[in-house]
């Protein structure tokens, strides 16, 4: 059933064609601007943070590609959940014999799948044409291993991102105006997730904070996996970190959801 | 005609509709929303403008208010071209769209009126007088400080009508002013409009789905169908031409065989309830008296004909049961 | 019909003064509405400030690793950042609500604007005026003050005038992009995002020195969408930096002309948009 939900969600997002096209333009424009700032910075500091220039530029374009896949600006499919919480429709959902968290995860993965094809592919392609980007290197085995590890890291990143957004959406049970929380989420995830600058460039204290937060698992870690910054053991550790965050955050999401359900049942919404 | 306020001569409005046909192809079709419209409204008249959905009512209102440009034909309001002289005419007309408000959605009702005062440059004395009058007659006193989005449909509509009249317009366009309103709101709105027309001589053109609106307000009805005026005259004439029927809904004390009553026609019979149709032009009183004499009645009501039925009958088309 | 008998307030001629006054009334109404909920206002304003501050955090982190970006020092880049953010912020404050036009076209509420005796532009620009956008203005303004304090410029009356003109013309240019861009909402459904790439994307680009971009891109901002006139060209003169394009020196003072051109183009686009709405009804 969840597969069907996922596929339906994919199709639904596929109907917003014009919105997708417009988003692609924005992401591409920002991709160019950030690339030029990186070019200037790496000209002065060629191996800053352990990235060579083409790694750094690849980092930029992966980031622009994944910006909408990771649903930073909105809450992705969870926008609907939030609306349903705000207008009380969620009470109906709670009586259905489906697991809420799994249901919305399926929806969101369908959305992410579509945006990966439609929103992420084009900016990355444009970036690859305009700049020299890095693809996984080494022996055939190493390349294959890197691609599969990256795919796994991407899926885990989507789940972690979803788990965070699920918590953000649930705040609508308690707050009338969720824009504030959403803004904090955007700021935290884009800055500490490394979307603008790799967290390795942060001053030590900030980097330590960023590394201790789950946002790195949404972007910084999977990007580093793709850029082959980890050895085999490191890659496993990175994937493990993502997995841990996914489990922990989904668990917290369940706890909070339980509280929210109680609130709805007791107070009638 | 000297006192003609609205003049419409051979007005046509066509839209290009693009439809997706297949994956990438699109078909382009030209649809005439209004085709060769002709009519004149005199100053001080109150005219009902009716017709089925998609007949071109709203398009006409939009052209008269200067929102839409006619594709061809001549259209004059107070001698001016509504599109070219939009701002100048806007000063002299009031518009109420039943489906969407002209009030400022997130602001309290009072703010909308305050803004209208500035936008229409209404002198203070006029503004105070008109606002007080509207507030009294439309019972808006308790609503003034409520944000528009929190108003019920009926309250909002009353608020909208007041906003359209503060600057004393010469002509008032109402697009479905009673749609979705409860019975009380409908009555209040109708009474108010009748007064405005009678006391100020404001010309009113209103589109509606509710024949009762027309019955209680308008001496003249224009029926539009497929973008053309197909009837223009009194309401009685419309009923005659459309052979329209009212329905008497009879609730009996106990089940009876189908009622046979001269001058009526049995439409439906369900348990203790029976439906009798009779010509709309005939009076219901003698029928009711006859029924009461013959049967033990629990309840009795008269249902007005639906506009769609009347129009459909005018064309001898099959009446779709509602 | 005898119009001469009408009282003066009914003549309803189109007057720019009246349009401006109405814009002012609408704006005041919204400010009052916003201040009715002070907690919400302050939260969103601070959020707005943080959001625009994020870009500066990125610049600050970059300068942890270098002393110059494209040959420009931190105070110099901060000057670009401050002027770009301040002008965008002011334009956003004044006419930023225009990007909601797409929604209004779809739900048909443009109709209600068109039946009022005030130009549609004045009404739509003022609607939903969001005072919280002062957040960006304040934050960028603070960075600008900091940069000017650390630049040790030799101030002359001409340079002071140039800075004032920079802020005004920059605001006008960005405002024109908002208005001209929103005219496209009459033709296509999701023009808001494209408009964003020009306004927010453009402002982000202007935060960094022109020297870091490819020449053709800089040329595009001089002769295409004239964003270079917002701050780059005047800043080159103010900060005494060499021009990567080698343009004549009077270009630094040409922002008013560029701003005027922008206003004209935006006005024409807007008129075309309204006209198209008139004939199609959405």
UniProtKB/TrEMBL annotation, chain A:
Transmembrane stretches, start-end: 21-44, 56-75, 116-135, 147-176, 183-202, 234-256
Lineage: superkingdom: Bacteria
Signal peptide boundaries: none
Keywords recorded for this protein, A-Z: Membrane, Transmembrane, Transmembrane helix
Database matches in InterPro entries: ABC-2_transporter-like
Name of the protein described by the UniProt record: ABC-2 type transport system permease protein
Organism: Streptacidiphilus jiangxiensis
Automatic annotation (TrEMBL), chain B:
A biological process term (GO) from this entry: response to antibiotic
Record-linked SMART domains: AAA
Pfam families associated with the record: ABC_tran (PF00005)
Location within or outside the cell: Cell membrane
GO terms for MF: ATP binding; ATP hydrolysis activity
Membrane-protein topology: Peripheral membrane protein
Cellular-component GO terms for this entry: plasma membrane
Presence of keyword Cell division: no
Keywords tagged on the record: Antibiotic resistance, ATP-binding, Nucleotide-binding, Transport
Domain ABC transporter: 6-251
Keyword check for Ubl conjugation: no
Name under which the protein is recorded: ABC-2 type transport system ATP-binding protein
Organism: Streptacidiphilus jiangxiensis
UniProtKB/TrEMBL annotation, chain C:
Coiled-coil regions listed in the entry: none
Keyword terms, alphabetized: Membrane, Transmembrane, Transmembrane helix
InterPro entries tied to this protein: ABC-2_transporter-like (IPR010390)
Regions that span the bilayer: 39-65, 77-96, 160-188, 250-270
Protein name as catalogued: ABC-2 type transport system permease protein
Organism, scientific name: Streptacidiphilus jiangxiensis
High-level lineage: Bacteria, Bacillati, Actinomycetota, Actinomycetes, Kitasatosporales
């Amino acid at each position: 059933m969840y597969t069907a939900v996922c596929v339906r969600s994919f199709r639904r997002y596929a109907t917003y064609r014009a919105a997708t096209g417009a988003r692609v333009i924005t992401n591409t424009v920002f991709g160019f601007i950030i690339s030029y700032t990186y070019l200037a910075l790496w000209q002065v500091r060629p191996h800053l943070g352990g990235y060579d220039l083409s790694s750094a530029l690849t980092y930029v374009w992966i980031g622009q590609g994944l910006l909408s896949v990771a649903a930073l600006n909105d809450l992705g499919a969870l926008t609907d959940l939030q609306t349903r919480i705000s207008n009380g429709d969620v009470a109906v959902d709670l009586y259905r014999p489906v697991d809420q968290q799994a249901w919305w995860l399926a929806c969101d993965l369908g959305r992410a799948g579509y945006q990966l094809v439609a929103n992420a592919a084009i900016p990355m392609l444009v970036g690859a044409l305009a700049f020299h980007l890095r693809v996984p290197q080494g022996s055939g085995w190493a390349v294959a291993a890197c691609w599969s590890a990256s795919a796994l890291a991407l899926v885990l990143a989507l789940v972690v991102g979803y788990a965070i957004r699920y918590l953000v959406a649930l705040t609508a049970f308690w707050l009338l105006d969720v824009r504030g929380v959403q803004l904090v989420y955007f700021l935290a995830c884009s800055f500490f997730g490394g979307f603008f600058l790799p967290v390795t460039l942060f001053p030590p204290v900030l980097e330590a904070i960023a590394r201790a937060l789950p946002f790195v698992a949404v972007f910084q870690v999977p990007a580093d996996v793709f850029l082959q910054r980890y050895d085999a053991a490191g890659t496993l550790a990175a994937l493990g970190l993502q997995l841990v965050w996914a489990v922990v955050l989904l668990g917290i999401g369940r706890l909070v959801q339980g509280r929210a359900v109680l609130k709805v049942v007791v107070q009638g919404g | 005609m000297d006192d003609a306020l609205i003049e419409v001569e051979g007005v046509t409005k066509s839209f290009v509709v693009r439809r997706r046909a297949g994956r990438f192809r699109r078909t382009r079709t030209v649809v005439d929303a209004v085709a060769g419209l002709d009519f004149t409204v005199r100053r001080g008249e109150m005219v009902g403008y009716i017709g089925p959905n998609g007949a071109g009512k709203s398009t006409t209102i939009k052209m008269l208010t200067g929102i839409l440009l006619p594709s061809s034909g001549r259209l004059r309001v107070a001698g001016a071209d509504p599109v070219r002289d939009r701002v100048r005419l806007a000063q002299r007309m009031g518009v109420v769209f039943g489906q969407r408000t002209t009030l400022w959605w997130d602001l309290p009702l009072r703010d909308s009126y305050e803004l209208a005062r500035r936008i229409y440059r209404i002198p203070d004395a006029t503004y105070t007088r008109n606002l007080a009058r509207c507030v009294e007659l439309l019972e808006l006193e308790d609503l003034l400080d409520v944000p528009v989005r929190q108003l019920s449909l009926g309250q909002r509509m009353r608020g909208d009508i007041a906003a359209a009249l503060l600057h004393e317009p010469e002509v008032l366009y109402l697009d479905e002013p009673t749609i979705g309103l409860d019975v009380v709101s409908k009555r209040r709105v109708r009474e108010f409009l009748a007064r405005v027309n009678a006391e100020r001589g404001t010309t009113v053109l209103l589109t509606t789905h509710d024949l009762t609106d027309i019955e209680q307000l308008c001496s003249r009805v224009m029926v539009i169908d497929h973008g053309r005026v197909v009837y223009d005259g009194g309401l009685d004439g419309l009923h005659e031409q459309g052979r329209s029927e009212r329905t008497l809904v009879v609730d009996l004390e106990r089940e009876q065989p189908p009622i046979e009553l001269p001058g009526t026609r049995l439409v439906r019979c369900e348990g203790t309830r029976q439906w009798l149709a009779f010509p709309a032009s005939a009076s219901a009183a003698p029928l009711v008296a006859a029924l009461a004499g013959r049967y033990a009645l629990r309840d009795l009501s008269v249902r007005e004909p639906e506009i769609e039925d009347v129009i459909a009958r005018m064309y001898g088309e099959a009446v779709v049961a509602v | 019909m005898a119009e001469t008998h009408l009282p003066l307030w009914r003549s309803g001629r189109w007057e720019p003064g009246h349009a401006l006054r109405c814009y002012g009334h609408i704006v005041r109404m919204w400010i009052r509405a916003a201040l009715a909920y002070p907690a919400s206002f302050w939260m969103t304003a601070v959020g707005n400030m943080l959001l625009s501050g994020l870009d500066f955090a990125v610049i600050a982190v970059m300068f942890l690793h270098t002393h110059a970006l494209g040959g420009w020092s931190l105070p110099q880049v901060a000057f670009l950042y401050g002027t770009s953010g301040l002008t965008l912020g002011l334009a956003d404050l004044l006419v930023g609500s225009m990007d909601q036009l797409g929604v209004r076209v779809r739900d048909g509420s443009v109709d209600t604007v068109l039946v009022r005796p005030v130009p549609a532009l004045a009404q739509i620009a003022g609607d939903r005026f969001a005072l919280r956008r002062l957040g960006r203005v304040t934050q960028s303004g603070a960075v600008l003050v900091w940069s000017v304090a650390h630049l040790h410029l030799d101030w002359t009356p001409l340079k002071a005038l140039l800075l004032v003109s920079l802020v005004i013309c920059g605001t006008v240019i960005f405002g024109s992009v908002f208005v001209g861009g929103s005219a496209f909402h009459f033709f296509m459904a999701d023009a808001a995002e494209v408009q964003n790439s020009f306004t927010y994307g453009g402002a982000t680009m202007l935060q960094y020195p022109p020297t870091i971009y490819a020449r053709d891109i800089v040329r595009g901002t001089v002769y295409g969408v004239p964003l270079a006139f917002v701050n780059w060209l005047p800043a080159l003169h103010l900060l005494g930096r060499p021009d990567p394009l080698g343009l004549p020196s009077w270009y630094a003072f040409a922002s008013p002309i560029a701003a005027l051109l922008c206003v004209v183009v935006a006005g024409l686009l807007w008129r075309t948009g309204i006209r198209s709405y008139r004939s199609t009804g959405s």
